[in-house]
Each structure stands twice: as structure tokens, then as C-alpha cells.
């Protein structure tokens, strides 16, 4: 009679260890692929948000004359609707992208709202903006590669800023209208402090000397806005 021999416990344990190592080796690249895909998706969402803002300006004009375009107010309470103006002026010049008003994406790829900051002159529904009377120099937003940059090294004096708070979501408002934990890194904090400086830089880990950073930032210059909203002759 032929005897049959099975695996011993030691052999099974060795096999399980090998399988665990193999699975662990595959998990890291898979996680990186997922994050890369979400980053690409969010960059596309930011681009679509810029197009939606331009579309709003193309269809909203002051009573005039002259009839001038204007941009939407930021959403402050998280309902996705731009806030109500008083005497043509928005309550705040920073908040969240009014996605309901714009008919744009409600969130980034990590389920959080997009931050939106805009120079007040461009949202005033009484005066609007024009090529004849551009925003006053120094009234826009500066984008730096570091929170304490002495000289602006990415983009200066831009009127519109959009920010996704990235994979860690620190400082963001999620789809349940809940504010998430504040960031610990100075560069991410700079994108939350409501001044006119924002940071755009490659991502860094929490143990990096510069601190953790994974925000995605997009912006529009005044020239870009008027070239799209006021082609051939500009806005009066």
C-alpha cells in the first residue's frame, strides 16, 4: 500500500511567509499606481474647474453699461452654492469652489472639496472686470515653492487660485461637509491661512525637513481670463 505524505506545519509556514512577502511587494506598487491615477484625475478636475469659472464669466455680465463679466463668489458654508453678494461684493474672497453654481465636479479624487480664492474686483457684480481697468497690481495671489519664500518663484499676482488638499486631505472639507484635521506642515498650512500666498511644490513625506506636503494647486492669470472671456477687442 502506497503511503501519502502531506505538508508539514513548518513547510506550510514557509510557504505562507513567501506568499506574504510576494503580496507585500506587489501592494506598494499598486498603492502608488492608485495614488498616481487619483492625482491625474484631480489635476483634470482642477482644469475642469477653471473652465467652469471661465464659462460662468462668459454668461454673467453687470447690468451696465458697459456690461462687464464677473466671476462667482466662493462658497463659504459648504453647500456648493456661491454666497449672496451685498452691493455687488462677495462676503469673502476665499472659501470653496461653488460647484453647484458652476455645474462642475463636487470633489477631488479623495472625496474633498476644492478650495477657491479670488481677487474681489473680479467677483463684483456691479463693476465687473475689464481690459481697460485691470486689477490693481499687488492685489492678487502669489504662488511660491516654499511657505517662507522671499521672492515669488512660481507665479505672482494671479487673481484666481484653486487648491486640492491632496491624499492626506488635511484642512479640507469632505463631501459630508466635515472639516478635516488641520495640516502640520508649514507649506500645507500656507494654503489655509487666507492670506495672498499659496504654495505649489512636489510632494514631500511627513519626515521631510520641509514637512509633509501633497496639495495640488492651479491658478489663472488675469491675461488668461480676459483672453478667454473677452476675445477680439477685450471687455469694455
Quote the distance from N terminus to C terminus.
101 Å
Structural class of the helix and strand makeup? alpha+beta
| Widest β-sheet, arrangement of strands | 1-2-5-7
Share in helix? 25-40%
**How many beta-strand elements?**
7
Provide the descriptors you would attach to this structure in a database record.
four-stranded antiparallel β-sheet, single chain, 4 helices, alpha+beta, elongated, 236 residues, three-stranded mixed β-sheet
Detailed description of the structure:
With 236 residues, the protein is of the alpha+beta class. It contains 4 helices and 7 strands. The chain has helices at 9-59, 99-102, 186-190, 222-229; strands at 94-96, 115-118, 141-144, 155-158, 160-164, 197-199, 216-220. The chain has a 4-stranded antiparallel β-sheet. It has a 3-stranded mixed β-sheet with strand order 4-3-6. It is elongated, with a radius of gyration of 24 Å. The N and C termini lie far apart (101 Å). The mean pLDDT is 90.
Amino acid at each position: 500500500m502506497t503511503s501519502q505524505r502531506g505538508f508539514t506545519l513548518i513547510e506550510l509556514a514557509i510557504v505562507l511567509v513567501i506568499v506574504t512577502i510576494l503580496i507585500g511587494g506587489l501592494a506598494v506598487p499598486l498603492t502608488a499606481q492608485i495614488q498616481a491615477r487619483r492625482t491625474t484625475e484631480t489635476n483634470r478636475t482642477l482644469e475642469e474647474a477653471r473652465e467652469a469659472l471661465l464659462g460662468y464669466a462668459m454668461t454673467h455680465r453687470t447690468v451696465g453699461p458697459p456690461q462687464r463679466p464677473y466671476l462667482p463668489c466662493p462658497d463659504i458654508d459648504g453647500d456648493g452654492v456661491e454666497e449672496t453678494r451685498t452691493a455687488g461684493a462677495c462676503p469673502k474672497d476665499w472659501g470653496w469652489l461653488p460647484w453647484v453654481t458652476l455645474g462642475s465636479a463636487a470633489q477631488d479624487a479623495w472625496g474633498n472639496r476644492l478650495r477657491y480664492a479670488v481677487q474681489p474686483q473680479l467677483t463684483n457684480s456691479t463693476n465687473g472686470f475689464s481690459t481697460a481697468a485691470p486689477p490693481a497690481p499687488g492685489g492678487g495671489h502669489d504662488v511660491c515653492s516654499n511657505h517662507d519664500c522671499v521672492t515669488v518663484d512660481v507665479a505672482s499676482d494671479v487673481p484666481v487660485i484653486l487648491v486640492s488638499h491632496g491624499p492626506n486631505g488635511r484642512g479640507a472639507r469632505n463631501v459630508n461637509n466635515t472639516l478635516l484635521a488641520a495640516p502640520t506642515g508649514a507649506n500645507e498650512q500656507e494654503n489655509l491661512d487666507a492670506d495672498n500666498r499659496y504654495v505649489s511644490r512636489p510632494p514631500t513625506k511627513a519626515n521631510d525637513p520641509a514637512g509633509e506636503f501633497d496639495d495640488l494647486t492651479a491658478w489663472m492669470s488675469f491675461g488668461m481670463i480676459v483672453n478667454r472671456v473677452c476675445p477680439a477687442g477685450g471687455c469694455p
